[in-house]
Amino acid sequence: MNQTIETMLNHRSVRKFKEENLSPEQIQMIVEAAQMASTSSFIQAYSIIGVTDPEKKKKLAKLAGGQDYVSESGHFFVFCADLYRHSLIGKWENADVDDSIMSMEKFMVSVIDASLAAQNAAVAAESMGLGICYIGGLRNNLPEVSELLETPEHVIPLFGLTVGVPDQKTAVKPRMPFQSIYHENSYRHQKDTVKQEMNEYNEAISAYYHERTAGKRSDKWTEQMAKMLQRKSRMYMKEFVEGKNFAKK
Amino acid sequence: MNQTIETMLNHRSVRKFKEENLSPEQIQMIVEAAQMASTSSFIQAYSIIGVTDPEKKKKLAKLAGGQDYVSESGHFFVFCADLYRHSLIGKWENADVDDSIMSMEKFMVSVIDASLAAQNAAVAAESMGLGICYIGGLRNNLPEVSELLETPEHVIPLFGLTVGVPDQKTAVKPRMPFQSIYHENSYRHQKDTVKQEMNEYNEAISAYYHERTAGKRSDKWTEQMAKMLQRKSRMYMKEFVEGKNFAKK
Which keywords are on file for this protein (chains A, B) (predicted)? Predict the structure, then answer.
């Protein structure tokens, strides 16, 4: 196994960091690695905002649901779906790009582009010995986040990535078994098969929590998911996304 | 610079492969690396379909716009946004998860999850000396792709990833300058600044094509983008996505 794959297999989210800012060189290297991810038809439909202003970081930490490790980390990146430049290009090149830019297809392209870039950033950071945590909590309140970061129309902050020198040791969380995530030639959708696989996975997850908490927790994965999905969270999203002129057509 | 970052900075899409299938061990390692990417609230809202059936591969190559390197590669992966399991969990756990599953928020979560996993797969493959190319062309015709792969409701094939032993040497394509993609504390949306940056980038891209084609091409990036976005491609996507019960609420 090579170092790159070893880095990936050792991934765990880090939520406690030493008081040590990333250097400008580290930030630049992480962003350059992000930029080299594949991009659909070379569209590069994303932007990255690095937040260094202490006040803004505190506000973002609060908006993300009181996650201190947003402000108390070495650096905080925000990844955005971004077709703003492309909307301007339409005007400059005298091309009617409105339908494209407002299409569900290009919304997906920009979310995918931003995510591929972000994962390169995450793995690059981890390969440098840093720890990371994605901050989906930014989506709790995108109107305020957008105002704070002054993102224009055609730009949506999707998630944050908090990066720094780890100050905790966390465990690698066992993923779904290979045969549950990986299908060959056609999707195995038989409900009995899925149920049996999920039961087996439940046992693995229960055992993981049991061991990690000295018997205090033994959640099953399906229970966790049911509980989470019962909460109707961020139901403003469709209106917000369409209000930013994404996924309207 | 470490090996992982070196691998990323050396990324270029490969579209011609040697006739050499990936081994089961290689496939498993790539999928396991993919699975270790971060996932929103541990939801793991994606699936990977490996296509090995030669007939299916040919059909997919055709559906993707006649891209032979889909069928003529070492392996072809399809990454799907997937909330099918979660819809079943709702029934098994007697939890009302319908609003969540049909929300724009969870659509974004599943597209992001699938993309983070895919980028780990891509980098893992490249770290093993393999070449890769993302196949967004699958989205040309998702109804037929879904039928071919037998994906149920709540599952959307997002893109393919073709992987194999490279049989061509391609050049690294210069990305947008660091200062154009990276903002500090707030988004720089001043049109004049963006225009000036894009003009500079146009020169870099023109020079790149000029050198690579011995003077035959000298496209500017903004021209490429305007031309691409003028085509109203895949405008069926919103109806298709909502028809699969994603992004409806």
Answer: Flavoprotein, FMN, NADP, Oxidoreductase
